[in-house]
Amino acid sequence: MIAQILIVEDLPRSQEWLTGAVQHAFPHAEVHVADCIAAAELCLAQIQPQLCLLDLGLPDGSGLSLIEPIRKRRPDALIVISTIFEDDAHLFPALRAGAQGYVLKDLPQQTLADLLLGIERGQPPLSPSIARRLLAFFTPTPTTPANQQHPLTERETEVLRLIAKGFSVPKVAEQLGISRNTTAGYLKDIYRKLEVSSRAEATLEAARRGLVSTEAT
């Protein structure tokens, strides 16, 4: 039973939307609202919420930075991201960080309440468009002849794995003991072989083809 809920959101209108939804879904729960990371940390020093709804863009940082302290305080807490961002560059880092749900702020309040009610039935709260994006991501893509003709080299795979972990080009170069120019060259070759134009796209495409893991490391 969910008895304590923490909402971390800086916009008053979004605070009202989230508060109304959780009060409808869990009318007997105690709801705490924080408008920044610092305020949330103060709340966590006093409560052990079973459900946390976190915004990504807060005045003093990313809501993702709260996941670890929440886990330390309450290991079984359910953490749901509430955001306007539905792109892969925000979704997958949130899931890798430990979020168990991801809802968009364009949902009607009643729809959000219904998604949250699904928690007690073991259903992760996901906006419909996010659920479709996840299904598309994990749908196997057929290997094309071009992919077979241009596999990544062992060194390129090493570079890609580090890029997937969020390392910058200088940091990748430092880790592998090679120059920045050489690293940039490897990254350029990776883009060409995977037919992508950004590091985020390269990481996702490589994960689809089984070249790197999507799990947090």
TrEMBL record:
Domain of life of the source: Bacteria
Keyword DNA-binding: yes
Residues bearing PTM 4-aspartylphosphate: D55
SUPFAM superfamilies in alphabetical order: C-terminal effector domain of the bipartite response regulators, CheY-like
Domain Response regulatory, chain residue ranges per copy: 4-120
Pfam families in alphabetical order: GerE (PF00196), Response_reg (PF00072)
Domain HTH luxR-type: 145-210
GO molecular function, one term: DNA binding
Alphabetized UniProt keyword annotations: DNA-binding, Phosphoprotein
Name of the protein this chain belongs to: DNA-binding response regulator
Species of provenance: Ahniella affigens
